Amino acid sequence: MIKIKKLEFGEVKGYMIGKGPVGPPLMSVAFYMIDGVLIDTGFSRMEKIVLELLEKKPPHTILLTHFHEDHSGNAAAIKKRYNAKICGSLPTARLMAALPKILPYEHLIWGRASESDVDPVAESINSGRYCFTPIYTPGHSADHTVYLEKEHGWLFSGDLYIAEKIKFFRSDERIEDQIDSIKKVLEHDFDAIFCGHRPCLENGKASLKSKLAFLEDIRGNVGKMLEKGYAENQIIKSFQNSSARHIKLLTMGNVSFRNMIYSAINSCVSPGSHRSPNDNVLYPFFSGWK
Ligand SMILES: [Fe+2]
């Protein structure tokens, strides 16, 4: 089932799109347009529809928040059809030039993005009427970058926010980097968060502060349990969140609540390093599809 919702936030327009292989989509993704600039592009399983949605006012510039296929999936097609320039952080440019393999659930839900040339963003991107300042915010992914329109207090936040009490981490997400990135962003003034999955237009900064408090709480509690001598498995068990189980199953453990706790343990035990959680039963045998 395909779902398309038009988003209108004053001068910022956008769409929330989702496609469920069977039944309603599990998760929808948003992209935003303003003054010829498109922030993120949706996923390639909806390429034809996205190209049609952009037909009336094609973008001249695409800003990518990160390389994940639900955000970058149509960048190459939009560039080709509308001659748009793709911009992103230097790490995004490197990843988009040689995309990593993706897992079966990513193929099923989003489809693969195509490799493309991305111009690394300079200090800021000026569309004529608006100025978008990139802020490098790793944690959700190594290349994650948000774009701030300072004058209007708009934050195009990709997957930095998603929810105050986030229920899922991908296996490569890093809680300590997310905490540092959110703190960095909170040093700036903004009100509206144009999130990749859940726009938060009023009190966006307060919502992001709440997410920071939630992540710091998790890490603090995990740290206290480690100090008391709890084992990894005991800590993970104590945080069990059954509401996320169907996602864990669908993604073969690549997306789970456990990953967040594991990342918190990791950040306390060996800050700065990253051990991959052994959550995906197929990882030893299956590393993804091209
Ligand atoms: Fe993402």
Number of helices: 10
Q: CATH topology, anyone?
A: Metallo-beta-lactamase, Chain A
**How many structural units, i.e. domains?**
1
The CA-CA distance between the termini, in Å, is 25 Å
Strand order of the largest sheet: 1-2-3-4-5-6-7
User: Quick check: average pLDDT?
Assistant: 90
Instruction: Choose one word for the global shape.
Output: globular
**Total number of β-strand segments?**
14
Helix content: 25-40%
Oligomer: single chain
CATH classification class:
Alpha Beta
* Annotated CATH homologous superfamily: Ribonuclease Z/Hydroxyacylglutathione hydrolase-like
How many strands, which pairing sense, and closed or not: the largest β-sheet?
Answer: 7 strands, mixed
Order of helices and strands: EEEEHEHHEHHEEEEEEHEHHHEH
Backbone CA Rg: 19 Å
Our estimate of the beta-strand percent is 15-25%
Tell me what the CATH architecture is: 4-Layer Sandwich
Task: Record keyword descriptors for this entry.
single chain; 33% helix; Metallo-beta-lactamase, Chain A; 10 helices; 14 strands; five-stranded mixed sheet; 290 residues; alpha/beta; binds fe (ii) ion; disordered C terminus
